[in-house]
TrEMBL record, chains A, B, C, D, E, F, G, H:
Residues 161-186 are annotated as: Disordered. Pfam families: Nuc_deoxyri_tr3. This is YtoQ family protein.
Amino acid sequence: MWTSIRRFASSATPQRQWTVYLSGEIHSPWRAELAEAVSHLPVTLTGPNDDHALSDDAGAMIYGAVPTRPHWDSIGARLNGLRTTTNLKEADLVVVKFGEKYRQWNAAFEAGYASALNIPIITIHPPNLSHMLKEVNANATMAVDSVEKVAAALDYTINGTEPATPKDWTPSEDIWGKGNPNPGGK
Amino acid sequence: MWTSIRRFASSATPQRQWTVYLSGEIHSPWRAELAEAVSHLPVTLTGPNDDHALSDDAGAMIYGAVPTRPHWDSIGARLNGLRTTTNLKEADLVVVKFGEKYRQWNAAFEAGYASALNIPIITIHPPNLSHMLKEVNANATMAVDSVEKVAAALDYTINGTEPATPKDWTPSEDIWGKGNPNPGGK
Amino acid sequence: MWTSIRRFASSATPQRQWTVYLSGEIHSPWRAELAEAVSHLPVTLTGPNDDHALSDDAGAMIYGAVPTRPHWDSIGARLNGLRTTTNLKEADLVVVKFGEKYRQWNAAFEAGYASALNIPIITIHPPNLSHMLKEVNANATMAVDSVEKVAAALDYTINGTEPATPKDWTPSEDIWGKGNPNPGGK
Amino acid sequence: MWTSIRRFASSATPQRQWTVYLSGEIHSPWRAELAEAVSHLPVTLTGPNDDHALSDDAGAMIYGAVPTRPHWDSIGARLNGLRTTTNLKEADLVVVKFGEKYRQWNAAFEAGYASALNIPIITIHPPNLSHMLKEVNANATMAVDSVEKVAAALDYTINGTEPATPKDWTPSEDIWGKGNPNPGGK
Amino acid sequence: MWTSIRRFASSATPQRQWTVYLSGEIHSPWRAELAEAVSHLPVTLTGPNDDHALSDDAGAMIYGAVPTRPHWDSIGARLNGLRTTTNLKEADLVVVKFGEKYRQWNAAFEAGYASALNIPIITIHPPNLSHMLKEVNANATMAVDSVEKVAAALDYTINGTEPATPKDWTPSEDIWGKGNPNPGGK
Amino acid sequence: MWTSIRRFASSATPQRQWTVYLSGEIHSPWRAELAEAVSHLPVTLTGPNDDHALSDDAGAMIYGAVPTRPHWDSIGARLNGLRTTTNLKEADLVVVKFGEKYRQWNAAFEAGYASALNIPIITIHPPNLSHMLKEVNANATMAVDSVEKVAAALDYTINGTEPATPKDWTPSEDIWGKGNPNPGGK
Amino acid sequence: MWTSIRRFASSATPQRQWTVYLSGEIHSPWRAELAEAVSHLPVTLTGPNDDHALSDDAGAMIYGAVPTRPHWDSIGARLNGLRTTTNLKEADLVVVKFGEKYRQWNAAFEAGYASALNIPIITIHPPNLSHMLKEVNANATMAVDSVEKVAAALDYTINGTEPATPKDWTPSEDIWGKGNPNPGGK
Amino acid sequence: MWTSIRRFASSATPQRQWTVYLSGEIHSPWRAELAEAVSHLPVTLTGPNDDHALSDDAGAMIYGAVPTRPHWDSIGARLNGLRTTTNLKEADLVVVKFGEKYRQWNAAFEAGYASALNIPIITIHPPNLSHMLKEVNANATMAVDSVEKVAAALDYTINGTEPATPKDWTPSEDIWGKGNPNPGGK
């Protein structure tokens, strides 16, 4: 039997697995929180190595110590890039979290990388960063301010789950009327 | 042993799974009917969220209400696009159903999107819409007027199943002769 | 000498020529109006054959008359596609005009085609069609309601020309303050 | 001033140059005839080396004679491929002429090559070859039986020139009525 | 333990499945013979519908009969193209068999299609067709004259299996000496 | 006559024009300085609109004022994107300047965008930002600290011009010996 | 529960399988050694046929002996290319080992091939070949001198495993201080 | 008037300019010799910086000296790559010259790079290097032993010029008969 807003697969068809790359901030447990929030969904989460000290030094530990910092960093960053670039390229969605602290140029770099490959992005950031992120957000599916909203977006996208009703919610039908007519325009 | 018109796979090879995206009309149960008609085939059906009211409002429910309709709609349509675009891009075939009512610009948009990506399309529409759809149909594998014909096309394509014999059917061999010669041209 | 917001080319460098494909409505002189409005810009305008009767019959006039309409139309539409597809693919920008009348599925088809190829689109339509076009507009750079606004967008994009000041205009700096800080968020 | 069905370019804009690759038959003067027929159009014609004996031996003349024919031919065909493949890839249109004689597998090969690259093709062939060419023609913009019809198709495509009125011509409007309605369907 | 010329996978890794598309001749049982010859290899064989009469008429049986042959054929060939093009595009190798009879333009078309997509091809044909096929063979990995040789090429490619020793065989080492002598080298 | 390290073109061949996109910092005159420094080279410089106030408001001036800042910014950023993305995609090189101030997420975004498209980048930044930019620099051709060094890199790349000899310079030959041998390794 | 530096997959998600192509040197058991060193990782190793004599003659054994060496080699190399090219194209990483002996042009060729396809490469070579390999290494993620270092790089990349602490190791934090500030630059 | 084997362009059409990248050996004047030999052809020659000492040190001269050789070389090679990669990617043909001396891994690397991008290559090398270059040559249009033969191949390809008749030449027609004999017919 067919059920609205769901996938029309026979029971023998394995459900599509979504791969979501988690870019950006590494100093809060947001990846774990999102993992928890989407644990009921067919979602594989990937991301960069988020152990800050290790990601700085792993390259030099393997290659050998280097006397100048830019080259030490180049070796480290190129090795980290093996993981991040491989995972980025095969993501169905990239979630990028920006915070108040740090430059986070690698987060913006990965957002640009994903956009150029036509991979959709969702950004998470405090509302007061909105203007500084306007170029990134203009390329995003959505800009939200919490992990929960990303989880809701994924649940709606994959399973058609209705998001929780916001406080004081008025559906668009009640505001602008039913059906397609849009009298008065914007 | 080899059998004509079938896949030459050893029994250990899993059959190719076809992914078919169902675009267009959301006010009739045609997706369920097609799902039923191809339930014996290795076909995964995907499509947009077909709950009209929810697809209008889900974006704003997650993002937050927005005072102007074009932006409300932009947030909703971009979120819906996460599902539709991801599924469209990985379809082996896009079936697009046009009906008498509504503008259905999103259906034609998705047909164009698929065509640009070299994904074959089959259109379903009442015969009297044929002239208005001539640009879409010129890019289609076939334009038919029923879900059953799409199912027959898939069964023939995947399994080599002979379609049901139409009423008053005369095979081409009986009309123009056997073999390649095509005397008299068009 | 360097001048802000302009191209930093030596005088020996020919200016970049922008190619803009004009899709959609063929029953008003909007293409001529836009040509007039951008006549001072390095813009080449292309588009479909906009002689309605001829575009219906040119294919059959060359190929020969065909007894059934869908095939007559298929021959015509495939020939027209030689012009439209070639021009669409090499456009820097596609402008699509939707009106109140007709189904205009070919316009939406071309918008989808352009989007899949990552070619930016700008739509022109009466405000009251906004909701029906929400999927198309979600993929657009901008949705406007006049040819003049497209010309202003091109003049700003190419030459950095400041658009005409709208009536009762308040700059964003006067509304939300200067610089990047965005206190209070959305 | 704007004129229907033409390019909306300012007089300073050079007209788009179309590149048309002429594939297939090398034993009749059809390339010269087409060159004559499109001499008033902004069309650059390219094609394979059509000196049969030279195209067989040029490779071996440069590389050195080879004792076995398949290798002699391989060296020749790979050298010819430098010209044909380079030109094929940058064509806007590929015209392929098939005749009664010879296998012409290279013509069909080039048609397939062009199709895979999304380059439109027009075939020229005697009507009685139609059935044998059905797979090629299904991928073609149009299949015609004369060089003149290719020239007419190009003139219509590039300049919007109305094709010559066929004998006993009845416009589609007179057959099926004006406007979009298509009552009765196919 | 590692064994020369084999895949270095742990036993837990499923072996790579090769997909081979069988193009061309449909009037001999060569597909069945090849299926038999590679039945011990991880190879999935695909190909066109090889029931000649059905492949001519299936399109019209679904779409409805059409009064003119070119359009009847166009509908049929476009439907067959759904199967052939989908399978061609995802092949790791395309084997194309040419015989003495028939024009087989569709076989050459598919060979060109595969080449343009960088899919390797192997041709099978009687030696006396070699010159007519020189352009196709110049793009092929190998041109052979039997199904057994294709099977040997696959067995060598996938498993590193040594081909059967030909009659009167002399290894290259015995003819031109051992190793990579590079006199002068550094 | 042939001259080492230069282009081997006949005098009739126009020299290759390099297109360099200048991304990042808009509050210093570095674009004008670079334009001056490369004015003798066949280089076309492009970049974003660098009038800060205008780039914030141009979108809303054309589209109409919008009551919420994120949507105001979205309209502005999408319009600016028409210029930046078109120019970015066709650049031969992207130079990105990072400074001490501001978040400059759009600069890092554009660097990521260029990298994903395989367009080489050169970064300019004060040395003390090196560690924060390690992921961007790992994808860069070179990271330098002045506009002059970018000009020197372009002059060497295009014309083979020897860079100015640095103070206390010792050529590599004098340090590690002449020729390829590299005894002792790193 | 979420664990730092690991994949955030539910237990039901199969771990990502990495495919690593092993190019270059065929006269030492380094492929077996690497297979052993990564046997605990989800890594599939692929590579060329490494039986030197067989890889020289397999083509001619199947095709038939050829009187001239360049054609004998061409047939052999094209057949070997079926394996190498197919595997190269789908690798996530290409490891290329260069040694003191032999020209190894095929190894450098495969490194270039991979780079053009944006597939990351890691080179293994004795330190004293570093200067001769500078162009290859400039395109590599890392250049190392042992199989063990490749295994460590993979273990860090896939599982976030900390590499073995080198002798006399000082972490970067202890050298240049903690956090992002990088005073003094390079 | 149409002339066999030539381009069918009106006199107003500028002739196609071929871009040929010259890779490999930098210690002989072969680039100058080829430039001389093709000076009558519409060919633009490009290539790497061929000043050996400068190409080793230019990067460090701009960036600043670096204490370790691999990093010194990395900076140099990445800067050189800006020129080589940009030119390689837009070549219509890559000519690669291998000599007896040096490792020339960068030449083989560039050959592989070009092949992966479907850019045809012609190799020049002494005949005795043929076996070591078999993988490179299997991907080449032709392998020759002199600059003159490259010039002859270009003259034939571009203008259809008949190559000089080799000593003791017998045309293929005199060896194997005229035409496409195909015993057994269609």
